[in-house]
Amino acid sequence: MSIDKGKSEGGEHDYSNDDELWALVDGFDDLPEDTSFEMAINYYDNALKIKPDHPVLLYRKGGFLCDADNYEEAIKIMDKILEIDSRYVDALFLKSKILSVIGKTEESKECKDRAEKMKEVLFCNQ
After folding, report:
1. 3.30.70.1140, 1.10.3720.10, 1.25.40.10, 2.60.120.260: which CATH number matches 19-124?
2. At what angle do helices 37-50 and 55-67 cross, to 10 degrees?
3. Rounded to whole angstroms, how far apart are CA atoms 9 and 115?
4. What's the pLDDT tens digit per position in 32-77?
5. If we measure between CA atoms, which residue out of 1, 58, 62 comes closest to residue 31?
């Protein structure tokens, strides 16, 4: 898996120059393609011990939790990201997708609508 070092879409911060973060996850690119979700989650858990409130690390862990069908934990992580960086649009979109998968259609729609409005506002302010 290749790490995208770009800015989170709509996030308050640009993490692309966070050398400490990328030093933590740089070795992830060297893991074998057949790496299990559990191993990937563990890898991010170790990085989060050093930077526990880093939205990009949390987001990537949440993505792997989602891939491993651990939806409730992934939602908790998306909520934590939004507490840290309330404009992290990608976290809202992923939360919407997860809510849809677990059958919470109305909550999913509300979350997606909020994300789309936020994205529109952020895009217009750039």
Report:
1. 1.25.40.10
2. 160
3. 11
4. 666 688 888 888 898 898 889 999 899 999 999 998 999 999 999 9
5. 1
